[in-house]
Design brief:
Elements lengths: L8 H15 L6 H12 L5 H15 L9 H15 L17 H7 L4 H15 L3 E6 L2 E6 L6 E4 L5 E3 L1 H12 L10 E2 L1 H17 L5 H13 L6 H12 L3 H16 L3 H16 L3
Antiparallel strand pairs: 1-2, 1-5, 2-3, 3-4
Helix pairs in contact: 1-2, 2-8, 3-6, 8-9, 9-10, 10-11, 11-12
Length: 283
């Protein structure tokens, strides 16, 4: 089955405006942000579809036992509901699918990447009153329950398996070769989660040059986030040139060169040369 296609230009612009508004809000709704990412990816996801996903998250939350106890009890209740009863989990094949990074598709398929499965866990648990948050371990996203001194970690990608300290160390070592540090276990803010989701989508698209459309909308959403790397502007400019929008891409390259020139004039000259080459493609 082919990956979803982005919406028409007018709908895409409207979704991007809504995403920008949500990203700049005083309090961020993680589900809404992820659903707007999904609407940027999938032209079939309209406002009614977004509302239906929120309703489904509410429905699932209504099936969590009422205040089951401490962090371990919360983790167990979510594992029984989502991991066992509804069989949400992931596999290696999910890394090859764009749908694995889209919340509405993860809810439909009950399959996805660790971070999107964690979003499902967090949103269902939060609605049920759990002390839940995301934990952005290097290379693998999990969920945490409870304060630091009583923290319980669960891995939604593995059906919600509760992790021991040794399990978390193995996950980090397997992904990076590094040791588990206490700073890796702090709650991830919603915008951090969304930024990581967009990074995953950009990585998926980078391996598929024919899907530069996906790479472009993903980098444009990332640029809307209040905190982002300046190099994203360069990435967007390259994508515009790649997609044949030579003038806009060249202008973006020139603008990025001005930023780079402050710290690295030779690098800025190279970028200006790329801008010149882009304009030459019009001849």
């Amino acid at each position: 089955m082919p990956a979803p296609r982005p919406p028409a230009a007018e709908r895409a612009a409207a979704v991007r405006r809504l995403f920008a508004e949500e990203a700049r809000a005083e309090r961020h709704d993680l589900a809404t942000l992820c659903l707007l990412v999904g609407a940027s990816a999938d032209g079939a996801l309209d406002d009614a579809g977004i509302d239906s996903v929120q309703v489904e998250l509410d429905r699932l939350a209504g099936q969590v036992p009422y205040r089951p106890g401490g962090p371990a009890a919360w983790a167990g209740a979510l594992r029984q509901l989502l991991g066992e009863r509804f069989e949400f989990r992931g596999s290696s094949g999910d890394y090859q699918r764009l749908e694995s990074s889209l919340l509405h598709e993860v809810l439909r398929r009950r399959r996805g990447l660790p971070i999107l499965l964690s979003v499902v866990w967090m949103e269902v648990a939060r609605r049920a009153g759990a002390p839940v948050y995301g934990v952005a371990l290097p290379g693998h996203f999990v969920v945490g329950f409870g304060a630091a001194e009583e923290q319980v970690l669960a891995d939604p990608f593995d059906g919600g398996r509760v992790l021991s300290g040794g399990d978390a160390e193995v996950l980090v070592a397997g992904a990076t070769g590094a040791s588990l540090e206490p700073g890796m276990l702090v709650p991830a803010a919603p915008l951090e989660v969304v930024s990581r989701v967009l990074n995953n989508i950009r990585a998926w698209a980078a391996a598929r040059p024919e899907r530069s459309d996906v790479a472009l909308w993903a980098v444009e959403l990332a640029l809307v986030l209040p905190s982002h790397a300046a190099r994203l502007r360069y990435e967007r400019a390259q994508l515009l040139v790649q997609r044949g929008d030579f003038l806009t891409g060249a202008a973006e390259l020139d603008a990025y060169a001005e930023v780079v020139a402050v710290v690295d004039e030779p690098a800025a000259d190279r970028v200006r040369g790329q801008a010149h080459s882009a304009r030459a493609m019009l001849n």
